C-alpha cells in the first residue's frame, strides 16, 4: 500500500485538489467507564445472552483504541467520539428519584435497579447509531448533513440523543459547511437508529447514492413486520432524513429488512450487510425482494456496482449473527478493492473462514482481511462496524473541525493513559449502585473534554454554566 494513497496528513497544493480530497473518516465511539452487561436490548441476542456478566470497561476502551490505532497506522483517517455521562442522573430524577446525586443513585439502586442499569449504559460507544451522515456531495445545499439518531426503541439508548446532538454540534461547528439537525421526534413512528441502517455508495467526491434500510412501515398499510423482536428503524424516519438532508430522490434507494431476519437477531441492517464505494457485501436474506433491491442499487450506482451475496447454505443467519461477519468495515485499498475489518470471531468459525479465504483468493472486491479482538463490545452485540461512524470529509471540511478528535500518535498515547488512569477493570451489575462510579466518570469526562478541546457538552458541566 502506498503512503500517498492513504497518508492522513498529506497537504494538497491547490484548492481544486482540496475539494477533490474527500475521504471517509471513521469516528469511533470510546466505550465509557460504566460499560456493563445489563441485557437491555431486546432482539440483540448477544446482549440478552450475556446479561449480568462482569464487564471490564478498561479492556473495552483499550480494545476499541487498539482497532483505531491499527487502522490509523495503515493511513485510514480515524477520529473519536467521546462517551456520555453515566449514570444519567437527570433521567433518574425525571423518573422521580430525588435528593443529592448520590441519593438518587442509592435510591434507584435499591428500588429500581433495572432503571439504574438503563441509565448507566455505555451504549453510546456504538457510534454507528449516533447519527445518519450525508456527504456534502450528495446534498442540494452542498453542506454535510447530520441527523443525530433518536434511538426511540429502547429507553437506555434514547437517553443518548441530547448529548450526541451537543457533541456533534461541538465537533461540526461550522454552519457554512455542516448542518447538524435535531433528532427526529422521539416517537415509535420515527424510530431512527442512525447509520447502522444507512449506506453511502459512490466515490467520496461525487454525488453518491444513499441507501436507507428500514425494519417496518409505521403509518398506513403495507409491509409485514417482525413478530418476535422490534423493528427499530421505520420507513417514515428514513424518508424524513432523506428529505431534510436535501438528497436527490433519483439517487436515494429505500429497502426493507426481512422481518424473519430481524426475528433471528438482525436488529440493525449492519448485522447483515455492509457497503462502501461500489461494493455491497451481504447475506441473501438481508432485504425484502432482494433481487429488486440489488437491481435498484445497480441502476443508481452504475455499472461498477458489485454485490457479493452470501447464501444461506454457506452461512446461516444464526451464524451471521453469531460471528458478526457482516458487521465489518470496508476500507478502500488501491484498485477499487477493500480491506475488510472483521471481528476475531470470524477467524475461528469454519464457515466464515472458508468464505473469507475464498473471497480473497478469487479476487473479489475484498483484497485483505484484518480481524480484531473486540470481545467486550461484541458481548453486547457491537462489532467493528457498530463502533464507527463514517463521515466523508473534504480537506476543507476536515480543516473546519477544530476539536482535537483526529487520532494521531500523541492523542493515541494520551487516550491510552487517560483510560488506564480512570477506568475500572471490573464492573458487575451490582457495582452500578456505587455512587463513586458517578464521580469517577465525571472526573474522567471532564479531563477528556480538555484533551479533545471540546466545550462543555455534559449535563454536569452545563449545570454550573
Ligand atoms: O442497541 N447493545 C446495542 C448494540 C448496538 C450495536 N450497534 C450496531 N449494530 N450498529 C443495541 O442493541 C446492549 C446494552 C446492554 O444490554 O447492557 C446494547 O444496547
How would you describe the overall organization of this protein?
- The chain has a single domain, classed as 5-stranded Propeller (L-arginine/glycine Amidinotransferase, Chain A).
- It is 35% helix and 17% strand.
- The chain is built from 20 helices and 15 strands.
- The protein has helices spanning 3-6, 15-19, 45-49, 57-73, 89-94, 101-111, 113-118, 155-158, 161-171, 235-244, 259-262, 290-301, 317-323, 345-348, 350-361, 375-378, 395-400, 409-422, 436-451, 459-463, and strands at residues 23-29, 78-81, 131-134, 144-148, 178-180, 198-201, 209-214, 252-256, 273-276, 279-283, 306-310, 329-333, 337-343, 366-372, 388-393.
- The protein has a 3-stranded mixed β-sheet with strand order 2-1-15. A 3-stranded mixed β-sheet has the order 3-4-5.
- A hairpin with a 2-residue loop joins strand 9 (273-276) and strand 10.
- Helix 4 (57-73) packs antiparallel against helix 18.
- It is globular and about 60 Å long.
- Bound molecules: N~2~-(3-carboxypropanoyl)-L-arginine.
Amino acid at each position: 500500500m502506498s503512503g500517498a494513497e492513504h497518508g492522513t496528513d498529506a497537504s494538497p497544493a491547490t484548492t481544486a485538489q482540496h475539494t477533490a480530497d474527500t475521504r471517509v473518516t471513521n469516528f469511533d465511539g470510546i466505550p465509557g467507564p460504566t460499560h456493563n452487561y445489563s441485557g437491555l436490548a431486546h432482539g440483540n441476542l448477544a446482549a440478552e445472552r450475556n446479561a449480568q456478566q462482569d464487564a471490564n470497561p478498561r479492556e473495552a476502551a483499550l480494545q476499541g483504541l487498539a482497532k483505531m490505532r491499527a487502522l490509523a497506522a495503515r493511513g485510514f483517517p480515524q477520529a473519536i467520539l467521546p462517551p456520555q455521562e453515566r449514570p444519567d442522573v437527570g433521567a433518574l430524577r425525571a423518573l422521580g428519584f430525588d435528593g443529592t446525586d448520590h441519593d438518587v443513585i442509592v435510591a434507584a439502586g435499591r428500588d429500581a435497579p433495572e432503571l439504574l442499569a438503563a441509565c448507566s449504559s455505555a451504549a453510546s460507544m456504538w457510534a454507528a447509531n449516533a447519527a445518519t451522515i450525508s456527504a456534502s456531495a450528495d446534498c442540494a445545499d452542498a453542506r454535510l448533513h447530520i441527523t443525530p439518531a433518536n434511538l426511540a426503541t429502547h429507553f437506555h439508548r434514547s437517553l443518548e440523543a441530547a448529548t450526541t446532538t451537543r457533541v456533534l454540534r461541538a465537533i461540526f461547528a461550522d454552519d457554512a459547511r455542516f448542518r447538524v439537525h435535531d433528532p427526529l421526534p422521539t416517537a415509535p413512528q420515527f424510530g431512527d437508529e442512525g447509520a447502522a441502517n444507512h449506506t453511502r455508495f459512490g466515490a467520496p467526491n461525487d454525488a453518491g447514492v444513499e441507501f436507507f434500510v428500514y425494519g417496518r412501515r409505521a403509518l398506513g398499510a403495507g409491509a409485514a413486520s417482525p413478530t418476535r423482536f422490534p423493528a427499530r428503524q421505520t420507513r417514515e424516519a428514513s424518508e424524513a432524513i432523506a428529505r431534510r438532508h436535501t438528497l436527490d430522490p433519483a439517487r436515494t434507494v429505500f429497502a426493507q429488512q426481512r422481518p424473519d431476519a430481524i426475528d433471528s437477531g438482525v436488529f440493525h441492517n449492519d448485522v447483515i450487510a455492509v457497503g462502501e464505494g461500489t461494493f455491497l457485501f451481504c447475506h441473501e436474506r438481508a432485504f425484502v425482494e432482494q433481487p429488486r433491491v440489488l437491481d435498484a442499487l445497480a441502476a443508481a450506482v452504475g455499472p461498477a456496482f458489485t454485490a457479493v451475496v452470501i447464501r444461506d447454505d454457506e452461512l446461516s443467519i444464526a451464524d451471521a449473527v453469531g460471528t458478526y461477519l457482516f458487521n465489518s468495515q470496508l476500507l478502500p485499498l488501491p484498485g477499487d478493492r477493500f480491506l475488510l475489518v472483521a471481528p476475531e470471531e470470524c477467524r475461528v468459525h469454519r464457515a466464515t473462514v472458508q468464505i473469507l479465504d475464498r473471497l480473497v483468493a478469487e479476487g473479489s472486491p475484498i483484497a485483505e482481511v484484518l480481524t480484531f479482538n473486540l470481545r467486550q463490545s461484541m458481548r453486547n452485540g457491537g462489532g467493528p462496524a457498530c463502533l464507527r461512524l463514517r463521515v466523508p470529509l473534504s480537506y476543507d471540511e476536515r480543516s473546519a473541525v477544530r476539536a482535537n478528535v483526529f487520532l494521531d500518535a500523541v492523542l493515541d498515547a494520551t487516550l491510552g493513559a487517560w483510560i488506564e488512569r480512570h477506568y475500572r477493570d471490573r464492573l458487575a451489575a451490582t457495582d452500578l449502585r456505587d455512587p463513586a462510579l458517578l464521580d469517577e466518570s465525571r472526573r474522567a469526562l471532564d479531563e477528556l473534554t480538555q484533551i479533545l478541546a471540546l466545550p462543555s457538552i455534559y449535563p454536569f458541566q452545563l449545570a454550573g454554566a
